[in-house]
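A common beginner's mistake is to predict each chain separately and then try to dock the pieces by hand. The better habit, illustrated here, is to supply every component at once so that their relative placement is modeled jointly.
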Amino acid sequence: MPLDLFKPTEYAVPLFVLLVIIELLYGWKTGRVRYEGKDTFASMFMGLGSTVVGAATFTFTFTAAFWIWENFRIFDFGTELTLGIFLLAFVLDDLAYYWIHRMGHRMRWMWAAHVIHHSSQHYNLSTALRQTWTGSFTPGIFFRWPIFILGIHPSIVLFCAGINLVYQFWIHTEAIGRCPRWFEAVMNTPSHHRVHHANNPRYLDANYAGVFIIWDKIFGSFIPECKDEPCNYGLVTDLGTFNPLRIALHEWLGIVKDIAGAKSWRDRLLFLVAPPGWTPDGSRMTSDMIREAWKARISAKKQAAE
Amino acid sequence: MDPVQLIASFVAIVLLAGVAYNLFPEKDVLTLASAKEDYLRFNANAVIATPILGEDHHAAILPLSTPDDQLGIVTKLGDRLVCRTLQKGDVTSFSINKDILTISCNDFTQPTMQIFLGADDMARAEALIIGFTKAAGGQNAA
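With all components supplied together, the output reads:
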């Protein structure tokens, strides 16, 4: 049974709207933030759609999580939300989020759902709301299962996941440069997350953290924002549309097409689980290939200058 | 989800997007320099030959001398640019209606692109596009 905990994301919606309005006015006044009507509509509509789909699939995901917790838990942390349990659950959920997010960029099946969040060429608070409609249809749902098996109640974990999402809202902005050094060292910040949303070869596939940036530092995926290289936002191949249905489904359609045209079962499987951009003949580029090509260009330029 | 809440949310989204639309009107226009710069960021190894810029500054065709079997297209999407590299056969069809060249591709997020061109540029663009159109060939509606 779900515990009687409030849903942080629902309570935060008025705050989200207020902060978007404040950022809009700040950007209009200072020119430091840019919005665009159609892009803003697409982002926020994707957010609304995500809420609707999330509500529709919640029963399934929660029932599965509860079944795992009820039948396979090693310890029993009880059903009461104490400070100790909350802190433990929050840190473990953030670690799980890091790996969900990392796989969301490294496995095409999960990227098909997550790509939506990266499909805007703008980076402002409305981008934070551009959320997936299809996250429940990926292996991402399994990454929190170890926490349930450990014995923390799914309601507590999902409550923490909600707070995690609310935290991530404010880091989608160009209005804030750098935070104090100690904060940048431990926490995910606008600067770190700008890098994550950038499509510059230098910045690809970095800074997957939700709340604590330390996971990226521990697992080797941290790249700091470089003053000499401003972030360019969006996808490696940007979408040519603001149509929400096309935004939500384009990568799924790409996978279906690729699998239909694949010559072997190995290729079919790899079109699902290999990194985005993988093809049997190397005719498209993965982020690793793009970064290597960029490094080769830089090195060739240096050699030519010497 | 409560239908009233859903409708209210949708109305709020439309209002906010409307405010954004009015506070941030599209200012940037596509120029040859910006088209080239953005395309080279997208396809860094390309060498661009003489490009064709749409008269409304919303799209540009970038013939490539390297690799010479590809064609660059840059289009405006709001105040941002979207780049595509076409290979032989990528154009499923095209049509010319007075000064509008419409290119259709097998691309789910950008199925058609329109470019406004003068007579000379149109002839050049048509010759280029034919080379990238599927065997059936293009359709000239003019």
